[in-house]
Design a protein that fits this description.
By secondary structure, the chain is mainly α. 81% of the residues lie in helices and 0% in strands.
């Protein structure tokens, strides 16, 4: 029996499906990050010690990063066994209901200790879904891309991060400007969590319209599916998963320093008004979004590894001037600081998905790329707001910058060690 070729996916449909999905997922993820700083310490934890409540809230924020590798392993298994399309739909349907449930959750005053426990469970669900979302979206783009445009196609799901952040931060900004504090704490913060259900339906509709990627169809045609993708990744591709994880650490650490930590520190220790700081962060997201396509173009022209090495060296230098730029009572300088940090973030984030996809064969690519990315999230982001806050409180902001520089040095070594591995995924 003659095997039929996979139906071609129109370029616009591919890029829309990868971009819309990650935008929704990151919107859901970031509204939690913003609420974890502005709302949750007051609502879901004991008010007897505000500083402790903030740290406990940041701890639940970190929980999702430990769930993400489990999501990567779970959804990666099915993505490499059953296909990219169905798995992406399932990942979206895991994260969406978890986010809506958070928006409906009663506070500590109503149900006591059950409030933070349920919050942690739903946050875990968010992490589980995003762990399966990112890798599939990247593969949907790169496995349909021409050989000379892998990084360009692969940057579309990456654009979901700044767009999702702008949507989430913009929503919270509008709410804080149109409501008094009492109404915002009482019910206003819940609006974006519940409204995200509408975005999930849009994402579902778009993804159900796409067909399977050519690379996965080849795996099926050649009977090359792995029986246990997770085991194969760690046993047969140990170097790839190790270097891929270490090469991605700084991407996560920089992002959550420039978003969650700076928002918390800037509005508390440096006493910037929340509204002013949220505006600065939204402006910085434009520089993040600018860096992503720029880095993709350069990566396709000069190589992904070279682009990532250059961006990482820039981040190392940025860490050394971190404290000098992030100061109280200097809003313009703080704006420059945030924009510069997020532009560097865009330069490293743009090609990283395509680079990780390129170090694993198609039969375990969903699992391998997803695990490398999510394990880096644990090492580079899960405890970053907590550790950075502790360093800043005890030693000053200079040591937060050192923290970033040391992590970037580790990433640089991993990138140098992975030269030659970050190739075209079709090769």
């Amino acid at each position: 029996m003659t095997k039929q070729p996979a139906p071609a996916n129109p370029v616009r449909r591919i890029l829309a499906a990868s971009l819309i999905g990650t935008t929704i997922e990151f919107f859901d993820f970031y509204i939690y990050a913003t609420a974890a700083v502005l709302v949750f310490p007051k609502l879901f934890f004991s008010a007897s010690d505000p500083a402790l409540a903030t740290l406990e809230s940041l701890a639940t924020f970190a929980l999702a990063f430990f769930a993400r590798p489990l999501g990567a392993a779970l959804f990666g298994h099915f993505g490499d066994r059953m296909g990219r399309k169905a798995t992406l739909v399932a990942a979206l349907m895991t994260m969406g209901p978890s986010t809506v449930a958070i928006g409906l959750l009663p506070g500590y005053d109503s149900i006591g200790i059950a409030a933070p426990i349920l919050l942690a469970i739903f946050r875990f669900g968010q992490g589980l879904g995003l762990g399966g979302e990112w890798g599939g979206a990247v593969l949907l783009a790169t496995e349909n891309a021409p050989p000379n445009k892998k990084a360009w196609y692969g940057m579309f799901p990456q654009l979901g991060a700044p767009i999702g952040f702008l949507l989430s931060t913009g929503t919270f900004y509008i709410l804080t400007q149109t409501m008094n504090d009492a109404d915002f704490i009482s019910y206003g913060w819940r609006i974006p969590f519940i409204a995200s259900a509408l975005l999930v339906f849009v994402g579902m509709y778009v993804r159900l319209k796409i067909s399977e990627t050519p690379d996965f169809v080849k795996v099926l045609d050649n009977n090359q599916r792995s029986k246990m993708p997770v085991a194969d990744v760690f046993i047969k591709h140990t170097k790839a998963i190790t270097l891929g994880t270490l090469a991605t650490i700084t991407t996560f650490l920089l992002f959550y320093l420039m978003t969650v930590f700076t928002l918390s520190w800037g509005t508390s220790a440096l006493h910037y008004p929340k509204s002013d700081f949220l505006i600065l962060q939204m402006i910085s997201m434009l520089f993040f979004a600018l860096g992503i396509p720029l880095s993709a173009v350069l990566a396709d022209k000069y190589g992904r590894n070279r682009m990532l090495v250059t961006a990482t060296i820039g981040i190392m230098v940025f860490g050394l001037v971190f404290a000098a730029l992030f100061k109280a009572e200097n809003l313009p300088m703080t704006g420059i600081f945030l924009s510069l940090g997020m532009f560097l973030m865009g330069l490293t984030y743009g090609p990283i998905g395509t680079a990780l996809a390129g170090i694993f064969p198609a039969r375990v690519r969903y699992t391998g790329a997803s695990l490398a990315f999510t394990l880096a999230g644990i090492l580079g982001a899960s405890l970053t707001p907590y550790l950075a806050t502790t360093l800043a409180q005890n030693y000053g902001l200079t040591y937060v910058g050192y923290y970033l520089t040391v992590a970037a040095g580790l990433t640089l070594l991993a990138l140098l060690g992975s030269r030659g591995m970050m190739k075209d995924p079709a090769e």
